[in-house]
Amino acid sequence: MVSLEMDGPYELSDKMVEKQAAPDTPGNYALGYLNEEGTFVVCYVGRSDDELQSKLLSWVGAIARYTHFEYSYADSAEEAYTKECHNYHDFGGSDNLYNSNHPYRKDKTDWTCPRCSFYGR
Fold first, then answer.
1. Cβ pair 57, 48 in contact under 8 A
2. Do 13 and 56 touch, CB atoms closer than 8 A?
3. Confidence check: pLDDT of 46 > 90
4. SS3 content of the chain, % helix, strand, coil (to 5)
5. Contact, 21 vs 52, CB < 8 A?
6. What is the mean pLDDT of residues 19-48?
7. Structurally, how many domains does the chain consist of?
8. What is the CA radius of gyration of the chain?
9. What does 60-78 look like in DSSP terms, one character per residue?
10. Residue 65 placed within a domain
11. How many CA atoms lie within 13 A of 65 on its CB side?
12. Buried-exposed string 33-57: b where 16+ CB fall within 10 A, e elsewhere
């Protein structure tokens, strides 16, 4: 069974995001809901290259199905990109997630996905 390797799940609310996720830091997140057994169901994976808390706050109330989140910090934007790629592939990509596209790299970088040929690897 694949794992996000993130903390959570937590309720996706302003109060909980502000309590859990630090500002001014890169990181990764997953959005979803708790099923009837209380298991976190991943619907979307993402990242922030520098403002994880702000990115999560932007999702509060945006889509009714996203009631919970998990998160992890990254040491750099590139590390966050790499983890997002792994999570995207581990959880089925756009076939299973609500992500419509493969994760994009930050402008003016040569980062490549460690799992597929996206960006020429």
1. no
2. no
3. yes
4. 25, 25, 50
5. yes
6. 97
7. 1
8. 14
9. TTTSTT--EEEEEE-SSHH
10. yes
11. 9
12. beeeeeebebbbbbbbbbbbbebbb
